[in-house]
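Closing statement on the zinc ion sub-project.
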Amino acid sequence: MEGSRGTKVEERLIGTVVGPDGGPVLICVAGIHGNEPAGVHAVRRVLVALEEHRDELEGSFVALAGNIAALEAGRRFVDRDLNRAWTRDRLERLRGNGAAGASVEDLEQVELLEELEGVLRDAGGPVFALDLHTTSGPGGIFSAFTDSLPHRAFAGDFPVPMIFGLEELVDGTLLNLLSENGVVALTVETGQHEEPAAIDRAEAAIWIAIVSAGLLPERLVPEATEARKLLRRDAGHLPRALEMRYKRDVVDGDGFVMQPGYLNFQSVRAGDRIARDAQGDVIVYEDGRLLMPLYQEQGEDGFFLVREFPQFWMGVSHVMRRMGLSRLAFWLPGVKRVEDSDDEVVINKRVERFFARQLFHLLGFRQLEDAGSSLLMRRRRFDEGRYLKHPPAPMSLETPPGSD
Ligand SMILES: [Zn+2]
């Protein structure tokens, strides 16, 4: 029985430690996928240790449970994936229903949303967030984030591979909603669901985040120094940065089954047969590395392909954005600003054929749609040098894009 492996969580708010004066807030969301309890165990450990530091704590630490019903059942979700429906439309509808919706996850989402809104409303400083996950296959230690300057700087403090562009392939994540509303948020994947080391690594990530968000100075938390060593030891052999290239969707009834034995970050070549579905062999279309191969029953993503992103280009992109060059992008040939929008462009691929997507990624745009002959891309919010010095102020999760 899967349920027998479940994790009991009594309250949405697993715990909080509030320092004597205001300051930044660090939110940890644990177990938004119910078969990923490592984060829950990790936040409990940190809450205990952090009590010792209450008087020195600048700001506050908040640990929230993601999907309580699914955690208890030991399943990714009960009715629907709780990490795929954090879009404004969906939240509006949920609020309208007063959580009277039919699904278990409607109720989970409304509760979690209210808890998050409360934290953002009361925050007296910048808000940081860690979204803690594990993978069904082994070796999945990495971070993912929306690539604007403050988010990238936060991610840079964690010595694990940084994955760019997840939000272009996966819609409706909590990470994306938080990031668009002024929260400096990071998803961390800390290993395989069942391995005890995944808890240690999640704990390590939290200690690093505590220092990075400014809740405690590193000299008071030797845990953070140890945490860097631990993550470097476990992930140091992997590339520092990789970009998303492809996602294989899994739809009910398409019979997708991964071949056994694939690891996260394993190199694959074009032509490799790595899975099967109802049509036959599933073949990789370009060289790259595999990420999150699906080795569990529930889940809509069969596997991802990523490719190493040279650090040189990360540096170039950093400089271009700090110089404000993304504003010039609107004047490039073949680029048209979307009417009534300050940050969306349509790019004619025939004119900008060779480098459109890459260039606009470097400049901080994300792809919204690929219509074949044109691309719709949007400049990410908060992608400005000034937010490196002073992280953005959090906004209500109801704030529509473009109103900052
Ligand atoms: Zn997950």
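Residues 33, 36, 133 surround zinc ion (CB under 6 Å). With this model delivered, the sub-project is considered complete and its resources will be redirected to Aim 3.
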